[in-house]
């Protein structure tokens, strides 16, 4: 076999190996990227669920605290921003704003004892707490899936093939503002009324 033919055969084999590895890496990238999208869609569902609960919660609180217009306005604006957001990055940012506004809304409940015992409010708060827990679960699942994708993209030689195929790291991790993920706990117990002191009998 002539040296030229040997060189051509070796180059062809190398090209075939590289192409095969490229196809394998690209298929894995597609699969992992779709997993990220699927995980985010679950996050989106629970965020929408919480957004759907908020109007009824606000209306219930308004029935007892109409003067808290600034808080109600903040919640409405944050909710509208979340619903209008398109990309995961935009929704994550809008969700952080909504976290803060919703926390302030629930905090004012402490000032209205009658509201704290309202049956509709109790039901809504319970549904909201359940939704918050679900958000936490789906957020972790999404972040774990995204981390798996990013790790794969940045490994050698995957990052070379990823660039050829148009894939790049995705830094849209779902992080919550500090303390915002916890629904404020409301103390539904009311202190027993203290008896007024009786005047001492005249001597």
Please, could you describe this protein's structure?
By secondary structure, this protein is mainly α. It is built from six helices and no strands. The termini are far apart.
- Which structural category fits the helices and strands? mainly alpha
CATH superfamily, by name, is: LemA-like domain
CATH architecture, by name, is Up-down Bundle
- N-to-C order of helices and strands: HHHHHH
Oligomer: single chain
Beta-strand proportion:
under 5%
Helix content: over 70%
Instruction: Work out the radius of gyration.
Output: 28 Å
Please identify the top-level CATH class. Answer: Mainly Alpha
CATH topology-level name: de novo design (two linked rop proteins)
Short description:
With 203 residues, this protein is mainly α. It contains 6 helices and no strands. It has a single domain (3-165), classed as Up-down Bundle (de novo design (two linked rop proteins)), CATH 1.20.1440.
Could you give the topology of this structure?
Elements: H1 3-62, H2 69-84, H3 88-107, H4 113-116, H5 119-154, H6 158-165
Helix pairs in contact: 1-2, 1-3, 1-5, 1-6, 2-3
List keywords for this structure.
single chain; 203 residues; mainly alpha; de novo design (two linked rop proteins); 6 helices; rod-shaped; disordered C terminus
């Amino acid at each position: 076999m002539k040296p030229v033919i040997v060189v051509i055969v070796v180059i062809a084999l190398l090209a075939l190996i590289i192409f095969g590895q490229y196809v394998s890496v690209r298929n894995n990238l597609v699969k992992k990227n779709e997993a990220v999208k699927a995980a985010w869609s679950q996050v989106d569902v629970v965020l929408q669920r919480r957004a759907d609960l908020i109007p009824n919660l606000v209306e219930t609180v308004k029935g007892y605290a109409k003067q808290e217009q600034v808080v109600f306005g903040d919640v409405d604006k944050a909710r509208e921003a979340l619903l209008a957001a398109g990309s995961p990055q935009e929704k994550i940012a809008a969700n952080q704003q909504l976290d803060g506004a919703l926390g302030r809304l629930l905090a004012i409940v402490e000032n209205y004892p009658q509201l704290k015992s309202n049956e509709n409010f109790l039901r809504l708060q319970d549904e909201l707490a359940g939704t918050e827990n679900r958000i936490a679960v789906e957020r972790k699942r999404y972040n774990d899936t995204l981390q798996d994708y990013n790790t794969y993209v940045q490994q050698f030689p995957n990052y070379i093939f990823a660039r050829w195929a148009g894939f790049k790291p995705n830094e849209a991790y779902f992080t919550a503002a500090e303390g915002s993920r916890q629904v404020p706990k409301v103390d539904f117990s009311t202190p027993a009324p203290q008896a007024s002191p009786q005047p001492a009998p005249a001597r």
